[in-house]
Amino acid sequence: MGFTLTGPSLILRPPGPGDAEALFELASNPEVTRWFSWGPYTELAEPEAYVELCAQQREQGTQLDMMIVDKQLGPAGIIGLSEFSYRDRRCMVGTWLGADFWGTHVNRESKALIAHLGFERLGMNRIGAYSNPENERSTRALEAVGYVQEGVLRDWHRHDGKYLDVNIFGMLRGDWLGGEQAAVEVAIEGEIPPAFLR
Ligand SMILES: CC(C)(COP(=O)(O)OP(=O)(O)OC[C@H]1O[C@@H](n2cnc3c(N)ncnc32)[C@H](O)[C@@H]1OP(=O)(O)O)[C@@H](O)C(=O)NCCC(=O)NCCS
């Protein structure tokens, strides 16, 4: 059975080969991938390779990317957990959405679903996030759902040979329990990929 997280208006599930075309549509817009080391997609082979990589990462327990599907409007983007430290019970969250979904319920609800998975099922105590200091939209979108900005990590990323600072944010389990994100109803069906249950 497939693994899904279902909320009031969204379903999160691992991306499969049948999602490559939708991913291509969503991330061939340069505005969407502007802050990333990859993209915009210019050929279908790129999201096809990404979907394969996701399957390997699920198998290895290194990264858990999920397709965000709006129950009415269809595929909206990707949200994922990465950089796991099981000793410290922490990981990072990252999100990208097709431009039509910016400024809608999708950022808030997808972050609530993935936070539920991280804190309640994977036993995390902290979920962190990064934003480029110039990406004010992303910074605001994280703060709006309860992530606390903790500082700036200097030269943290290297894109095209250039080092970039990032803002670092965190949400602790206690912050989550006391905030609006934990109040979102989530149903989990299917098996959580076993490599993440440590
Ligand atoms: C980051 C992302 C997931 C956020 O989702 P979103 O739906 O756009 O977020 P929201 O609309 O809920 O929140 C954005 C906030 O930034 C504000 N905002 C938008 N553009 C802004 C700008 N140029 N400067 C400052 N604030 C801005 C919005 O008004 C909103 O604030 P509000 O909640 O106070 O009204 C989405 O924009 C996206 O996929 N961007 C491209 C990929 C990306 O950058 N991902 C993040 C990598 S760190």
Describe this structure in words.
The chain has helices spanning 20-26, 45-60, 106-121, 136-144, 173-178, and strands at residues 4-6, 10-13, 64-70, 74-85, 90-97, 126-131, 148-159, 162-172, 187-189. With 198 residues, the protein is α+β, with helices and mostly antiparallel strands. Strands 7-8-6-5-4-3-2-1-9 form a nine-stranded mixed β-sheet, with helices on both faces. The longest helix has 16 residues, at 45-60. The mean pLDDT is 97. Bound molecules: coenzyme A.
What's this entry about, in short?
Helix content is 27%, strand content 33%.
Task: Please specify the SSE layout and strand pairing.
Blueprint: E1 4-6, E2 10-13, H1 20-26, H2 45-60, E3 64-70, E4 74-85, E5 90-97, H3 106-121, E6 126-131, H4 136-144, E7 148-159, E8 162-172, H5 173-178, E9 187-189
Parallel strand pairs: 5-6
Antiparallel strand pairs: 1-2, 1-9, 2-3, 3-4, 4-5, 6-8, 7-8
Helix pairs in contact: 1-2
Bound molecules: coenzyme A.
Coenzyme A is lined by residues 32, 35, 95-97, 102-104, 107, 130-131, 135-138, 140-141, 144.
